[in-house]
Amino acid sequence: MAFTDDDKIVIKFLRQKKHYGAKRFISEFPEKRWSLTSLKRLIRKIDATGTTKRTKGIGRPRTARKVHNIDSVDKLALSQ
Q: Which listed residue, 13, 15, 38, 44, has the most CB atoms within 10 A of its CB?
């Protein structure tokens, strides 16, 4: 199940202040139905960066809509 923003705030606070682990979160909040793997991944992210936000610049670069590529496609389309 996906984490809401409120869930992430609670998880971050309890991880940093009380050092809760993934299994402890599952036992403390059984109604949330969080998966162990997702919790471990989020905790690892909190430990590494100190935040639950997405890291800027991570992922595949978006180059399909760059000006250079648009001009190249226009030239190819007009040449035919």
A: 15
Is residue 16 situated within a structural domain?
yes
More confidently predicted of 4 and 70: 4
Q: Domain range spanning residue 2?
A: 1-55
Q: How far apart are the first and last CA of the chain?
A: 51
Which of 47, 19, 22, 45 is closest to 35 using CA atoms?
A: 22
Q: CA 54 → CA 2, 15, 16, 78, distances in Å?
A: 14, 18, 18, 41
Q: Decide: pTM greater than 0.85.
A: no
Confidence of residue 1 (pLDDT cuts 50, 70, 90): low
- How many domains does the chain divide into? 1
Note the pLDDT of residue 73. Answer: 85
